[in-house]
Hints:
InterPro entries: Beta-lactam-related, Beta-lactam/transpept-like. Helix content is 26%, strand content 25%.
Amino acid sequence: MDRRRRHPAIPRHRGTAAGGGYSTAADLLKFARALRAGKLLPPALLAEATRRQTPWYGYGFMVGERQGVAGFGHGGGAEGMNGALELFPAQDEIVIGLANLDPPEVERLVDYYTARMPLGR
């Protein structure tokens, strides 16, 4: 079954905590840079937010490693929309994926890309 569909003209989910936000890659990049620079959260609070509270989740961020390098981010979507943001602070790397496709297409693409990035090399 081909799960690709055109994004609906008026999404059912609109700006809720569970999705429906609107963004561009440029705006997500600004968000990620501001987060890293301490403009949105003080460094101590960001460190706490990105500390594992469960095996894979912090406070609002998915936390893990790629190639032994610590990173955090978040992804998700709904029918016709999908996004992912991953930050690797020690390497000064940010990965953003956005598409008008059903999940988990973008997460798969970002996973594929980050698995091959020269992070720990």
